[in-house]
Recover the amino acids of this structure.
């Protein structure tokens, strides 16, 4: 059976939902890339589309703002089909407390889209993070 996760995915939407209210932690048009390989490795990068510049000449506050608009982590994954979960075993992350953690995501496929859901982190207690990804199709190498 083919692993439906394998490939690269472009982020379409990142919403935190709580009590019928929506929040957009990475803005209304987030930028992100999610990758799964057939060896069990994964990586994800997400950033606010209007993330602050973090240039060397900027004060520390600008660097902090730039970092706050970015989330990245990598590790390995396993699929729990019975519970419809994908489990990320985090080996490295911009969130220090995630290193060595296990992050479970409910998943649902619909055509070329993948929806991942999990309890939101940080200051969004009680919220559900819902991220929608679209498969990036291989480029046709025909001349």
């Amino acid at each position: 059976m083919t692993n439906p996760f394998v490939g690269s995915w472009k982020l379409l939407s990142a919403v935190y939902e709580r009590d019928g209210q929506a929040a957009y932690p990475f803005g209304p048009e987030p930028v992100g890339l999610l990758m799964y390989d057939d060896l069990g490795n994964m990586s994800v990068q997400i950033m606010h589309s209007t993330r602050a510049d973090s240039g060397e000449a900027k004060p520390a506050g600008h660097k902090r703002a730039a970092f706050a608009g970015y989330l990245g982590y990598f590790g390995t994954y396993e699929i729990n089909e019975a519970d419809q979960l994908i489990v990320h075993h985090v080996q490295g992350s911009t969130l220090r407390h995630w290193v060595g953690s296990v992050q479970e995501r409910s998943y649902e496929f619909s055509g070329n889209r993948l929806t991942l859901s999990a309890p939101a982190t940080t200051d969004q207690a009680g919220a559900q993070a819902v991220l929608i990804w679209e498969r990036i199709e291989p480029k046709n190498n025909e001349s």
Residues 60-68 form the longest helix (9 residues). The radius of gyration is 16 Å. The chain is about 5% helix and 50% strand. The beta strands are 7-18, 21-23, 31-36, 41-47, 70-80, 85-93, 102-110, 113-119, 128-135.
